[in-house]
Amino acid sequence: MSDIQSQLRARAAELLSSGEVVQVIGWMDGRFENQTTPAFIDRPEDAELLVFNEYCVNTTPKYTLYEKEHGKLAVCVRGCDSRGINRMIKDNQILRDQLYLIGLPCSGVKDRKTGELLIKCQNCNHRNPVVYDELLGDAVEEPQVNRYDVVERFEAMERDKRAQYFESTFNRCIRCYACREVCPVCTCRSCFVDQVNVGWQGKQNNLAENKFYNLTRVFHIGDRCVECGECERACPMNLPLMAFNRKMVKDLDDLFAAGEAGLDAEGTHSLGTYDVNDVEEFM
Amino acid sequence: MSVVEASEGTQKATVDANFEPTILAIACHWCTYTGADLAGMNRMNYPPNVRVLRVPCSGRVNPQYILTALNKGCDGVLVCGCHPGDCHYVSGNYYAKRRLMAFKRLLEYTGLEEGRLLIRWISGSEAGKFRDTVTEICQTVKALGPLSTSEQDALTAFSRSAAGLADINANVGAAAGFASAPEPNQADGAGE
Ligand code: SF4
Ligand code: SF4
Asked: How much is the pTM?
């Protein structure tokens, strides 16, 4: 990895000094041991700050939304990041030629306190970027995990047990909206939770409002979710958000052969279209 | 007053036989609302528990309407629209079909009993089908009991109590492969 890191620093400096991009989005060391923080490098001499190691837990695509106004961006992308970028292009949030993508094969990132592979990486089948302008290092082998494992275990459970568990998770939510902020798919300029005058979402922190928020979020992103797992990682209250996201992804795949989101920047998403031959269960 | 045991529910909820559910029926203007009108003109009898909300099209039904209804006191929700192919706006009900199929599964996955959310295509001439559908959901929900008490309050009280939370995490979370929920003060700040 350190080899990739030195290549990354060299390429970032070149891209910045040649003026091809105005900013490189990656990671740099944070204040704590084994902790990194997103980095926004805009001077070639600062390229030395960039790091790439197994503690780069943040995903990068969402930042392009706020930085694109400065000019062309170079973005470090791993598998999850690249799918987020594809999804943002598809959602007309950014144009492909506003981006220079530095592909980085990834072997999973770890929790800085426990040293364990993050849950999102344990369930990942896309370690190599699916879109990039240049790839640093060699592609890594793709694991073949059953990413629906958690959904299947919940589905096999009795309804009332499951209901209890999910109610207890919704109760825990503090509605910090971190899950929305990090998501490459949550790009509405005016989110329903912020439209206080319309009153979709109450300010109370109770089960009904938490459930309303979480279920709306899951449903709204469900057909476009790229399964990067960033929402679950960012959640300070450890809500098992992927157990909801993946339920939607799984159902849509079963019902409408929706497939995986973000593998390319073409086409549409399964709830944004229809087929007259769809299965009928409401007759 | 006779009391029947609900077949489901960990709280061993007992359903009052005199319980009258509140059902929200969201009906599209062009078909189902007309069908309901016809049912009325034909003097058909159906349970008075249903409140009809007219929308221009089943494609207009935002899933948040359903969530709001369930949060604010309805015990069941019925969503109706034109048959596929008959939509006044050509394709609204096809979009609605996809959306509601996914949303119904999501709600039932997170704990809603099957039967509390019912979706049916009812045309303007199907007054009988409207009557039968309303009767069907009223009977189902009546047997299930009130949503607000048997579902929300009891579970909330249980899952908010420390003992309840510990129990849930130990028995259910562990079975699904999740570590215990953090105590709020132990939560690892994501923004560090
Ligand atoms: S990040 Fe977690 S606690 Fe915050 S709003 Fe999302 S689900 Fe709730
Ligand atoms: S919902 Fe979560 S997993 Fe899906 S794209 Fe958004 S952040 Fe990633």
From this structure: 0.89
